[in-house]
Specification:
The complex is a heterodimer of chains A (211) and B (417). By secondary structure, chain A is of the alpha+beta class. Helix content of chain A is 25%, strand content 36%. Chain B is 52% helix and 16% strand. In chain B, strands 1, 3, 4, 7, 8, 9, 10, 11, 15 and 16 form a 10-stranded mixed sheet that branches. The chains are: A alpha+beta (211), B alpha+beta (417).
Chain lengths: 211, 417
């Protein structure tokens, strides 16, 4: 869904329509990621987002085999939520769906770098207008130093046998990704919305009283 | 067993002073537990100011600020939300219901809020409780107004009373051509709804028909009939409450609103914003905990003083006990048993006092302050605290025990001249 707008904007520019450009960027803090959890019935939906720095340790465009392999490996790890965000056993949760990808955020344009490689996205991102827009940037900065940010994003759906027994989440995530420092967690249940914080020193979140 | 029997008999023989000490401990335990209940109750009442609303949408500012003006009606919006954006976003498939809110006018010291009649069904507090009408009904006519309980009480208004809405806050110019009629009075809720005057969204437009650029248009005022015939669709609103069809879509809708390209808007999860706000005002909570800890400390000190001063009167008793063969350890044991028994009796009486007090004060606290205290059992923290009271009593009793041990057997036997 979030990819639709930039694509739409890019399409409009390409077809020559005059459309005021929207300039807005998400905040980006190294070491700090977010995890949104929504609970309804036996379904738990989670959305994860963390800076590239937290996951692979760099945010420049990966070109070397080593960096590309690191991204590939990270995405694979991110696609198994049960070994990153571990619900307590008695809830009986299993993964129903999971998907992770790397997003490149460059001067407001979001380039979708999915490991599944969606050609359409690449095309738009590297369209003529994009190059013209950034012509200045290329003159002023060395390509390597370009201030670009990357974000890893993942979406999960879990099915839990007894969701009412979901009382804690253990974040082995911090062991898997040594650069990650903290995660801001937002939870929506029948009772309302709750915020929690997990970090390297306190990697377990108590969910009691939230349902 | 002999020791316990002895301790009990000894306590009974001094029932007046012991009774006072037990009562002092009971009072402080009740105070401590009461403060704890108030603290959690205040927190819960605060968190229950709004419930069952999934998102609140407003101009992009901060989540706490949006919450403050849209729910608590404190402060002002940085910007309005255009009606077009509101319609576009609330027609998304995830949206189950949406209630627009328009602020900016006032009546005496109370804020006037323009909204739709759906507000009275959708606004929930205290875990899903709905607003109820003490008198009358929701607004139905263009110039109907509904008032909160505090407004009715402070200004002495009832159903049918005319009221005049002022433009802006504490403004001297009043929209005196168009008086509203009160159609309903809400029951007391302990939420900001108590001090709000509700009118229809179209009514907010209606009162501004003759106003342009902050001043009155010259010429005769537009008559009521003309206004009634006008299209009073608002151009902008202040904020909107939104419910989603499925909770699983709440984050998605929030993101769609936050990234809406045509207008800088923001959507917040009210529960999380309330939690953030509580973290700011929560210092008072820490202060309350501190006060209750001091209360308990004072009571324990009192108990220690009472045991120590009692020691002097009991020199004879100690001497007799020792002369019939009680060792220093037995004496210490006796002191310990006495102190723990007193503390336990105090704690039990304190719990009793707390619940009697709670039962008696609950309805009044709810009605007068909107502070709802649930009749719940003791929390784990309370039990730990009670355990600490007993442990502290045991510790305090060591002082007189050591003193009793150090006084000689003969002490107290001899009659001093």
């Amino acid at each position: 869904m979030r990819y639709v707008l930039p694509i739409l904007a890019a399409t409009l520019v390409q077809t020559g329509h005059v459309h005021a450009e929207t300039r807005q960027m998400d905040s980006h803090e190294h070491g700090s990621g977010t995890l949104n959890i929504a609970l309804e019935g036996s379904t738990v939906v989670m959305e994860f987002e963390a800076p590239g720095y937290d996951i692979v340790g760099f945010e420049y465009e990966a070109t070397s085999d080593k960096d590309l392999a690191a991204i590939e490996a990270a995405i694979e790890k991110l696609e198994s939520p049960m070994s990153l965000f571990v619900p307590n056993n008695s809830a009986g949760c299993t993964v129903a769906a999971s998907h992770a990808s790397l997003m490149t955020e460059e001067d407001g344009h979001e380039e979708h770098k999915d490991h599944e490689h969606d050609d359409d996205h690449e095309e738009h991102a590297e369209g003529e207008d994009h190059d013209e827009d950034h012509a200045d940037d290329h003159d002023e900065h060395d390509h390597e130093d370009e201030a670009s940010h990357t974000e890893f994003e993942a979406e999960y759906a879990l099915t839990c046998d007894s969701p009412e027994k979901l009382t804690s989440l253990a974040f082995t995530y911090f062991q898997t990704f040594p650069n990650a420092e903290e995660l801001d967690i937002q939870l929506i249940t029948e009772k309302g919305a709750f915020a929690f914080e997990a970090d390297r020193a306190n990697p377990t979140v108590d969910l009691q009283g939230t349902q | 067993m002999t020791l316990v029997r002895l301790a009990l008999k000894s306590l009974l023989s001094r029932r007046f002073t012991v009774g006072l000490t037990v009562f002092a401990i009971a009072l402080s335990v009740a105070l401590f537990l009461g403060v704890e209940k108030l603290r959690t109750g205040a927190r819960a009442s605060f968190a229950d100011t709004i419930s069952k609303t999934d998102l609140i949408m407003g101009a992009r500012s901060g989540s706490v600020q949006l919450l403050l003006y849209s729910v608590f009606r404190i402060g002002n919006a940085t910007n309005n939300v255009s009606w077009q954006s509101y319609e576009e976003l609330t027609s998304r498939p995830e949206v189950d219901w949406a209630v627009p809110i328009s602020l900016g006018d006032s009546h005496k010291q109370f804020r006037v809020m323009g909204t739709t009649a759906a507000y009275f069904d959708r606004y929930k507090y205290r875990n899903g409780r709905s607003l109820a009408f003490e008198q009358g009904v929701a607004f139905d006519d263009l110039f109907d107004a509904v008032i909160g309980a505090d407004v009715a009480q402070t200004l002495g208004y009832a159903v049918g009373h005319p009221i005049i809405v002022a433009h802006g806050l504490a403004s001297f110019t009043e929209h005196d051509e168009l008086p509203f009629r009160i159609s309903g009075v809400l029951e007391k809720t302990g939420t900001p709804a108590d001090s709000t005057v509700f009118v229809g969204l179209d009514a907010i437009e209606a009162i501004h028909v003759d106003w342009q650029g902050g001043g009155r248009k010259s010429g005769p005022a537009t008559t009521e009939d003309v206004i009634r015939a006008m299209d009073l669709k608002p151009k902008a609103i202040t904020a909107a409450m939104i419910g989603v069809k499925s909770r699983l879509q709440a984050f998605g809708l929030q993101r769609a609103i936050n990234e809406y390209p045509d207008e800088p808007l923001q959507a917040i999860l009210p529960g999380i914003a309330l939690q953030e706000l509580w973290e700011i005002v929560g210092v008072a909570e820490t202060a309350l905990t501190g006060v209750s800890a001091m209360v308990v400390a004072t009571a324990l000190l009192g108990m220690a003083v009472m045991i120590l001063s009692g020691l002097n009167e009991r020199r004879r008793e100690m001497a007799i006990l020792r002369s019939v063969g009680a060792g220093p350890l037995t004496i210490a044991g006796l002191m310990l048993t006495e102190a723990v028994t007193m503390a336990a009796a105090g704690a039990a009486l304190g719990i009793g006092l707390l619940y009697v007090g709670l039962l008696g004060l609950r309805p009044w606290l709810d009605a007068a302050y909107g502070l709802y205290l649930p009749l719940s059992g003791l929390t784990q923290k309370d039990v730990i605290m009670l355990g600490l009271v007993l442990a502290a009593a045991a510790l305090v009793s060591l002082v007189p025990a050591i003193r009793a041990y150090r006084l000689s057997v003969a002490d107290g036997m001899m009659v001093k001249v």
